[in-house]
Amino acid sequence: MAKNSDSGWSTFLAISAFILIVATWVFIQPAVIRSAWMEERAQVYAIAGNGESAVYGRITDDLQTSLAGVFQGYIRDAEAIGQGPLGNSAFSRWTQDRIMATWLWLGLIAYRLQVLMGWLLPGIPIMLATYLDGHYVREIRKYSFVAQSPIRHKLGVRVMWIVLAGLAGWVIVPVPMPSLLAPTLIVLISCSLWLWVSNLQKRL
After folding, report:
1. What is the predicted pLDDT for the residue at 1?
2. Cα 43 to Cα 55: distance, rounded to the nearest angstrom
3. The pTM is what?
4. What is the pLDDT of residue 153?
5. Cα torsion 196, 202, 203, 204: sign
6. How distant is the alpha carbon of residue 203 from its chain centre?
7. Residues 6 or more apart whose Cβ sits within 8 Å of residue 43
């Protein structure tokens, strides 16, 4: 019964998140995404210095190489909608804004993924260390009169999923986010991983 309830909530949250993303795409202005990107660039630059410029340059170069021609074609098609006696200039302007918002949003997501990769360099060893520590704590408990806690195990699993959802939200949401949110989430993943592994049942 509990599993069915959890599955139902997961499905509801996934559908709600999808609807929210689509609604945001429909209404958000390109300037909002551009402002969020520039604000995050300033935060990352304060930490990484000139390394941030290399990341930003790599993202823009990749976008120009892979998608610039495609999006320019979309822009021309959107401009054509507003031309002629039957043209709809308002819909043409809205379509152009959606195309620009999509371009900037993809750039923001790619930028955040690059920043995340930078934080994962020290983060992966930390996660491996916490996993191994939790594993050996469990191994020690196998030979001692200590009961494993299913409540802590379940808590670790749920916190893990919540943090992973937060990490996905950080990558996707087109509003300014704190620059230290990514490493904070990586630390929380490590803690929940330890809680999860160290409280696995002894007989497994």
Report:
1. 46
2. 13
3. 0.82
4. 77
5. positive
6. 36
7. 178, 179
Residue type, 85: P
**Residue for token digits 């930390």?**
126
Q: What is the 3-state secondary structure (H, E, C) of the chain?
A: CHHHHHHHHHHHHHHHHHHHHHHHHHHCCHHHHHHHHHHHHHHHHHHHCHHHHHHHHHHHHHHHHHCHHHHHHHHHHHHHHCCCCCCCHHHHHHHHHHHHHHHHHHHHHHHHHHHHHHHHHHHHHHHHHHHHHHHHHHHHHHCCCCCCCHHHHHHHHHHHHHHHHHHHHHHHCCCCCCCCHHHHHHHHHHHHHHHHHHCCCCCC
Distance CA 146, CA 133 (A): 17
pLDDT of amino acid 6: 62
| Distance (Å, whole) CA 199 – CA 138 | 7
List CB contacts of 4: < 8 A, sequence separation 6 or more.
Answer: none
Residues 61-66 have a mean pLDDT of 74
**Number of C-beta neighbours around residue 30 at 10 A:** 18
- Answer whether 204's CB lies under 8 Å from 139's CB: no
Q: 181-190, pLDDT tens digit by residue?
A: 989 999 999 9
Higher pLDDT, 172 or 54: 172
Q: CB–CB of 127/190 below 8 Å?
A: yes
Question: What are the structure tokens assigned to 108, written together?
Answer: 């923001």
Rounded to an integer, what distance in angstroms lies between the CA atom of residue 32 and that of residue 29? 6
